[in-house]
Amino acid sequence: MNRTVGKAQRLASLREELERRPRSVVELAHLHGYTRRTIERDLVTLSEDMGVDLRKDDKHRYFVPNKPTALNEVEALAVYSATRLLLHTGVGERHYRAALEKLARQVPETARARYSPASTTYAQGLKTACSTSSRKPGSNSGC
User: Fold this and answer.
1) What class does CATH assign to 3-63?
2) CA distance 91 to 98
3) Are 63 and 18 in contact (CB under 8 A)?
4) What is the pTM of this model?
5) Sign of the CA dihedral 53, 56, 61, 67?
6) In this structure, which of 28, 55, 88, 138 has its CB flanked by the most CB atoms within 10 Å?
7) Domain boundaries, the chain
8) Which of 17-21, 79-83, 114-118 has the lowest mean pLDDT?
9) Can you give the C-alpha Rg of the chain in angstroms?
10) Are 107 and 72 in contact (CB under 8 A)?
11) Torsion angle of alpha carbons 110, 105, 43, 45, nearest 10°?
12) Distance from C-alpha of 44 to C-alpha of 39, rounded to nearest angstrom
């Protein structure tokens, strides 16, 4: 992978992370495995060169404000629930998880508080089950 592709992927990853929740430069550096200075330069690139609406909260954490959605709250909850069911198949798990995280921002706050931890708990259980079942010959758990 060349430097340009690596930087483009890093910028996309940073933007997605900042759309999910506010993060400090130190948190971002730790999450992505880069120096603070690299993250600071990337934030400038996102804001000035790419036109991302990057904001800072009172705790000096950066975030990208949520854009209005085409789904209302009930529709977002329905799609979120359906995606959770698909997650149980084990096929395309990474993509379903990313979709769940994006949808969770559109679900009403009371439901979000309940579903987000459940989604994380499920992911941890799936990883444990997959690592255990992958050692058993002939296992077909969808992992």
Assistant:
1) mainly alpha
2) 13
3) yes
4) 0.49
5) negative
6) 28
7) 3-63, 73-133
8) 114-118
9) 18
10) no
11) -160
12) 9
Structure tokens at 40: 């600071």
> What tens digit of pLDDT does each residue of 5-55 get?
888 999 999 999 998 889 999 999 999 999 999 999 999 999 999 989 999
State residue 107 phi and psi, 5-degree precision: -80, 145
SS (H, E, C) the chain: CCHHHHHHHHHHHHHHHHHHCCECHHHHHHHHCCCHHHHHHHHHHHHHHCCCCCEECCCCCEECCCCCCCCCHHHHHHHHHHHHHHHCCCCCHHHHHHHHHHHHCCCCHHHHHHHHHHHHHHHHHHHHHHHHHCCCCCCCCCC
On whether the CB atoms of residues 65 and 55 are closer than 8 A, the answer is yes
Q: For residue 76, what are its two tokens?
A: 């977002």
Name the residue with tokens 């987000």: 116
